[in-house]
Design a protein that fits this description.
It is built from 9 helices and 6 strands, in the order H-H-H-E-E-E-E-H-H-H-E-E-H-H-H. It is an alpha+beta fold and 211 residues long. The model has no long low-confidence stretch (mean pLDDT 92).
Length: 211
């Protein structure tokens, strides 16, 4: 009975999910140019499990709670989920910011105990290249020089807060590399040496990449 309920819930959530049909700005920090090419060209990928869909929902709940906490101490949050975009010829890459607080971009994330401990050791920019890219590109698009990042530990609700300073040179190089990759006529070279490589195993484009 219990397993049946879980299976039905996860099947329901998986069935409701509408896969993204384009490369989003939140993804342009992905280390693999081939992955970026596949995402931009709407390449079929592994379906997302219902459990992962529910995990995304948990992240949204945490984001709302953190914003509520900020507002409870009189920190005003504006521009929630404001859409931003980069236009390069006929290519448009879009994203949505979490908000703006006191002249700073606001980025909110959540992490398991393991990854939260890594964050404490290395800091936000070394912790996750996709998150770093997202924050800096959004700062440029919002004409802001700083970003306040707030990360909540999903295990114990501890918070990590850091202020990032905009690095325009980094953003320029990042965007040059991204557009160079996604505008190629064919997918770039693989960075995974074979299908059994640890990063390949969790990649949603594994099957098409090694076919």
């Amino acid at each position: 009975m219990v397993n049946s309920i879980i299976e039905k819930i996860e099947a329901k959530r998986a069935g409701e999910n509408i896969p993204r049909q384009h490369l989003g700005l939140s993804e342009i920090g992905h280390k693999c140019p081939r992955w970026l090419w596949y995402a931009h060209h709407n390449t079929p990928s592994k379906p997302i499990e219902g459990r992962i869909i529910r995990l995304f929902r948990t992240g949204n709940i945490i984001e709302d709670a953190i914003i509520s906490d900020l507002e409870s101490i009189d920190i005003e949050v504006t521009d929630r989920q404001r859409e931003v975009e980069i236009v390069n010829g006929d290519i448009v890459l879009k994203g949505h910011i979490d908000g703006i607080v006191s002249g700073q971009l606001l980025e909110i994330k959540s992490a398991s105990e393991k990854y939260f401990k890594q964050l404490l050791k290395v800091g936000y920019e070394k912790w996750n290249p996709k998150y770093k890219a997202q924050a800096h590109v959004y700062m440029v698009l919002c004409d802001l020089e700083e970003c306040m990042v707030v990360v909540e530990n999903k295990n114990d609700s501890n918070l990590y807060i850091e202020t990032l300073k905009l690095d325009r040179d980094y953003v320029t190089k990042l965007l040059i590399d991204v557009f160079a990759a996604i505008t190629l006529p064919e997918p770039p070279e693989r960075i995974c040496p074979d299908v059994s490589w640890y990063e390949s195993k969790c990649c949603k484009y594994q099957e098409v990449c090694f076919t």
